[in-house]
Structure of Histidine--tRNA ligase:
Amino acid sequence: MRRVVDVIRRTYESFGFLPLETPAVERVEHLLAKGIAEKEVYALRRLSAGDGDDGAKDLALRFDLTVPLARYVAQHHRELHFPFRRYQIQPVWRGERPQAGRYRQFIQCDIDVIGDGALSLEFDAEMPAVVFQAFRRIGIGDFSIRINNRKILGGLFKSVGLEADRDIRAAMSIVDDLEKIGIAAGVQKLGELGLSTARAEGLIAFFDQKGDNESLLKALGERPPNALFEEGVAELEAVVNASVMNVPERTGAEALIVYQSERDVFRRSLKIDLGIARGLDYYTGTVYETRLDSNASIGSVCSGGRYEDLTSAFIDARMPGVGISIGLSRLISELLREDVLKAERRTIAAVLVTIQDQTTRDLCKEVANGLRSAGIPTELYLETKKLATQLRYADRRGFPIVVIASADELRSGFVVVRNMVYGQEQKVAIPQLASAVRALTPPGMEWNQN
Amino acid sequence: MRRVVDVIRRTYESFGFLPLETPAVERVEHLLAKGIAEKEVYALRRLSAGDGDDGAKDLALRFDLTVPLARYVAQHHRELHFPFRRYQIQPVWRGERPQAGRYRQFIQCDIDVIGDGALSLEFDAEMPAVVFQAFRRIGIGDFSIRINNRKILGGLFKSVGLEADRDIRAAMSIVDDLEKIGIAAGVQKLGELGLSTARAEGLIAFFDQKGDNESLLKALGERPPNALFEEGVAELEAVVNASVMNVPERTGAEALIVYQSERDVFRRSLKIDLGIARGLDYYTGTVYETRLDSNASIGSVCSGGRYEDLTSAFIDARMPGVGISIGLSRLISELLREDVLKAERRTIAAVLVTIQDQTTRDLCKEVANGLRSAGIPTELYLETKKLATQLRYADRRGFPIVVIASADELRSGFVVVRNMVYGQEQKVAIPQLASAVRALTPPGMEWNQN
């Protein structure tokens, strides 16, 4: 899990996103401004009031990282420099259907770019490239980044007679749920908004259009029903086209070994999907969802979009932004299922130094110190136990390498290095120990990557 | 802050401690088992009940990392291998004196070793070496790791007639507060436990003894009042003596440059202080506190000790352990005050690539891609603005390096690299750009250390 977080963090940083961490707790009024259901919010109270006032009134755990971002940008907008890029990797809490003793905590990994008044579509085009590189580095297998623009949906809804904001929001929601509820229920729900069955079926057929990006864009461009729709298509086309250049092509030796253009992989991964709407009200343009080919049924592992107004609930300024959020918990569980990731290792250290003879304790400490100074995490077996017990411990904990030494060996400057995977042993002079251990360490032990 | 956390994490891992992360929320009954005041605990409730049951009943935010460790070890003791070493770096929450809209969140960095039934004193001797190396690497200046053993205090209290556990706990608490409340109040409070003024003053003089470790141990050994006291002195002596060998001496070229023995620095830092008691009830042997010489008045930045029973509140097993906790928030504020640490940088990227001519946008993206592929975090200025505006942005955000290129330069394969600190510019062929940027990057930009 730490490796996955590190990959995401480094990818975010490679594009210049700044780390931001905010407290777990926000004011209830700020959390509710976004329109989340109250039952999903965990509020705080002190177990006993103590000094009269309970001091926790009006406070609750954040349920996403967007509200803290909005509050932060609103509070600091005079000191910040725009476009402001931040990333945030922290837990969020949501009250899901209650079960005895259960609570719900997730880790989200968000990036957003906030503009002061305006923000170029080029930033919408950067997001898929960032996600693509993060997921490629994690090694999650094939995935698709689905992209759409809510102006296309909005234009379409207007063209069939939906005018009220409330109805358009409801229609967006129905599109978002279509996969879950099915076509029949979708038609019925659209009917409740006043659309005839024929119109509803026509809309659903539109959302369900298949094809590559080029042919879909061509079809969309042919008969735009209104200006909003046309604007959405133009934006979608601009973002899709500008995006590919943000992915670095492999170069040099690497390109000779891997007979595959990274940009071609990206082009195949970035798919226009007219059925993507995102449930949340505040998206206004580009929207994204990312599905894993290995298990599309778990839903989107990375979603986001463009919004026109992050801050007006806090200050008298409308700041547009675009962002995406990787749902780490969902991603990790999928990586574990696919065996891309092993469950937490039982040891972080590569080496266990045993103490065979208690008179050599200090010499063994020196051996461990030497390995640590060479950058190799090393555990010293500090209990006074038989060597067999120490080796059993090393085996159960999964240490790949054990250092063993009798008093005679140590005093003549040698130790025995045991490869626990193959059971082989070799005698090594202490000054050569670190390099011998490096040679034996299996790939993937984390210290090797630092 | 991230650098400090990374140093602590790597030092912990170098000794073989495993990372553990637990949810922010624990059951109230588990939290209160440790005897913390209820008003310090933040409990959860859902803002509206929703499905009838509120689902958050009996849940609260953790106030330390020891309760989650105890619960974890109790739940998993059949799968764990002992001695079990874990580290945990996560926030905790405590309800301090209430003020409007205020809440208290701290980050703690804990290590503990848990034994199954027994645990060697060698682990008590490892803790100061781990703390020492972490603080030396952070570069916090001089500090002292004060060490004591509660059996000495307990033996002493018994010898002056305090028998009841409650009275001994109260006396420990008075010792712990002595620095804050002063000698007069100390004498008075000890008097309330039934001690004569002469006895109380004698005790306080004992706690206040000065001297190097050797002479203090000698004095303590001379007339032990009882077996408990004697056991405490023997343990303290064993731990102090065994500790130094866990610190690696500098070797090779490094030792020639730095004319100072690391072990001598450690010996001077590890100080027996008979006035250290730690407030918490569960410590039973070794106790530690760490003070910074630059600002001892902020109190301990790293405390801990030995406890005989981590788990019996959860399961029918007594598991002893020893651990320490670095209070990161307090440490960071001190590092900032001492200018050891600069406040969060305004940029994580070393380079801003400007776009001077919008027809060269894709070429500029390639330049940015190339830098990122070389491991250099790079921000691309994606808004369409005048070069002067882009340079002002780079200056305000603190980018050390800006890449500038006209269409002509780019098409002939060159860019201009501008050192923002000195204002110098140089023309560089694009294949040499990454190495030119590396040469210009000031030390301390984090990507340089990865």
In short: Residues 98-102, 446-450 of chain B have pLDDT under 50 and may be disordered. Chain B touches chain A through 93 residues (CB under 8 Å).
